[in-house]
Design goal:
2 copies of one chain form a homodimer.
Chain A (H helix, E strand, L loop, with lengths): L2 H25 L6 H8 L3 H5 L5 H25 L6 H17 L5 H12 L3 H28 L8 H21 L5 H12 L1 H6 L6
């Protein structure tokens, strides 16, 4: 297939995704119809269905996009000579989530919240949410394995358990960002650092920090 | 008003709430109509409206009930002679959330997730979510203030920041419980303990733990 055609296909695909994201972010996933997406994209039903046969496929592509961005951030941490410690990793992740939430015309973290809500009712969407969660927790588990190996966390720590807690911190940040709206990445990361330092305060004599 | 009447009112009120909770947990808040609640409760529209003039008021009562349970758990920690340390506090809270999620005919944490989703679209529901969040974070801030006072966390820690992070941990636990379904309170608390111990491993020579 000639290269120009590939580019055209990719551009058209992105045009449809942009339209869908604008609709999802504005009115939620449930309230968005494929007709809304056609209108937003300025394309015919046939032109859209050729790329995305259903709303679920639009969500799948959207989720894959968000997942790709997040795994990249974690992979960059895994690729560093010196793996960032837990506090720095939490800060890096919540900073990136904030950047995602504010730097684009649509907010992918708000879309994530809509998709989570939809997954309570829709088994296909739930499957997508599971895939995203397991992929991210796998990456976070690798991060925790590095921490065990480097001695950054205790040798009897369970990397999958740490990954679940880190993923919970991510969900809790996105949740508060949209449900309450008054949380910043810095507050959140500083709060985490205070907790991480808590046992230091309890176990180590003062004056050595 | 005679006492028997008060009891009757309370029982009737609870009967309606039970019916609403069953509907919310089964089909979500959005998909539940007041007609569904009448049918589930076996009561007339007039009998229900006398207690709850709208779905929003049912949500408000439900949220107040969940909030009451959670603040009680935190208050019990605040009332102890020795305030539990951060790791124990996280364990106590996620254990209680798990108990809430499994010990009743309806699951209030699943209802919470539906209410969060609804709050994205509904300003009144958002107001309820904000009240719950601020009340819980106030209590968690008091807990963090105790930790600063006792030296359990560093003196330069910000109790409101710690509260935001702890609340994020709670949301992240409830989210994973329902979105993914494979997380236990023990895993989550152990993961948190591993993170709390992380700086100990990094800053303190091995062999002293």
């Amino acid at each position: 297939m000639p290269r120009v055609s590939d580019e055209h296909l990719a551009a058209r695909r992105q045009q449809i995704l942009d339209a869908a994201w604008a609709c999802f972010a504005r009115q939620g996933f449930h309230a968005t119809s494929m007709q809304d997406v056609f209108a937003e994209a300025g394309l015919s039903a046939g032109a859209v269905y050729r790329y995305f046969p259903s709303k679920t496929e639009l969500v799948r592509s959207t989720a894959e996009g968000i997942l790709g961005n997040l795994t990249q951030v974690i992979d960059e941490m895994l690729d560093r000579e010196q793996t960032p410690d837990p506090a720095e990793a939490v800060r890096t992740i919540v900073n990136f989530v904030t950047t995602m939430a504010t730097s684009r015309s649509y907010d992918p973290t708000r879309i994530a919240l809509h998709v989570w809500a939809e997954s309570l009712h829709d088994a296909e969407i739930r499957g997508i949410v599971h895939t995203v969660a397991h992929t991210l927790r796998d990456r976070l588990t690798q991060l925790a394995e590095r921490w065990v190996a480097s001695g950054a966390i205790a040798p009897d720590s369970s990397p999958p358990q740490v990954a679940v807690t880190l993923y919970g911190l991510m969900i809790g940040f996105v949740g508060q960002l949209h449900l309450i709206g008054d949380v910043t990445a810095d507050d959140y990361a500083d709060g985490m650092v205070a907790l991480i330092r808590s046992r230091v305060a309890a176990e180590v004599p003062r004056g050595d920090t």
